[in-house]
Amino acid sequence: MSNTPSTLFDKVWDAHVVRKIEDGPDVFFIDRHFIHEVTSPVAFLGLESRGLNVMSPERTFATADHNTPTINQHLPVKDLLSANQLRALESNSSKYGISHWGLGNPKNGIVHVVGPENGITLPGMTIVCGDSHTSTHGAFGAIAFGIGTSEVEMVLSSQCIMQPKPKKMRINVNGKLSKAVTPKDVTLYIIAQLTTGGATGYFVEYAGDVFRNMSMEGRMTVCNMSIEMGARGGIIAPDETTFNYINGREKAPKGEAWDKALSYWKTLKTDEGATFDEEYHFDAADIEPMITYGTNPGMGMGISKNIPLATDLKGGVATYEKSLNYMGFHEGEQMKGKKIDYVFIGSCTNGRIEDFRAFASIIKGRKKADNVTAWIVPGSHIVEQQIKEEGILDILTEAGFELRQPGCSACLAMNDDKIPAGKYAVSTSNRNFEGRQGPGSRTLLASPLMAAAAAVTGMVTDPRELMEVQEEELELSYGL
Fold first, then answer.
1. What is the CATH number of the domain that holds 424?
2. Contact 383, 351 (CB under 8 A)
3. What is the span of the domain harbouring residue 120?
4. Which residue, of 108, 181, 308, 349, is most buried by count of CB atoms within 10 Å of its CB?
């Protein structure tokens, strides 16, 4: 064995290389494969056309999420394409012996929520899915990334994928976060600093005090949005927080298998002296509650700031002006006080129980603004049940909000939850591209705290102005 210091990423990657191709990609073994109704049907047709079977059905897990309705899930799905895709997922899973959690199944939910909460996602694994936000699972010390439809077929048939090894980047954030700064704010801040292309070609390890102190749910939010700065994925070294989260979950190792796994997991950390191709350091004190003002996740700023001038930014002035014109904003304006129409809390970025706890901490004792339509969408049925058991549903109902059923919902315009053209949505999801949440929709990415503040005031509001709970109570959310 080599005594050369190794990064966490190298340790996991190199352990899964089946064969190296000279001047080419690695043949790379995949431990877990998640599939959903949108990207899998064509892959299964490919298998059938070539007369191939699924090599390891026990390593593949199917759930319906992207174009599912979030109300009346007991009724037939109206949209014909969506209904056909859902039927195809169910029939293909049955044909090949794949675990399937469809609509109505108590384990159903967003693929990147149900994987971790059921103990399917584990440290040291390689995980893929036909979905770019597969990077979420890197929060557990796994190498996780999105793949295309042809690659879905490749993994189904061989349990391997051909993949070039990315470069390595480490992002360090140290210090103590200020009041109301959540993991979503941390990741939006990093993307604003690096831009949406700043990590292209890299796999990012997140390190430092801030990530060590985060809960698993917060770490998942950070790794989820790694893709939004161009990274192949994000990864955080597993620790006691990770192990405590996993222990006891349904598909987690038990007994002697747990002890053996734990022994291995504890080796999954970057060695002292290991080198990265690129490294950044940020001070937690510089981060405040964030809001986006443009049409990509890198166009974000602290809530106390003004929209930047084009002359202060790198890049094309014309592109910047086009983005602001689409949003109906102007250089130098404040975001605070801008009227909004919709609020969405949910998605694989912020659809977990801690996100709803944070949302409830702001709205408790207040009422939803009359001008706001709010879509409150849990990431899974398990989260939905937690919302009810913890009394969060009572807080929501008292404030005039309604809880919807699990699904990707208004994160993307593939289901009925579409933001109308010209309307503004404060969204806890991950992308604010033109038309992402519906043709002509205008998206402001933010944390659950920021979303809650907007929901009760009807405008972009600094959540710190509404926070009445003590700071020690806020530490119940995200571990911060």
1. 3.30.499.10
2. yes
3. 1-288
4. 349
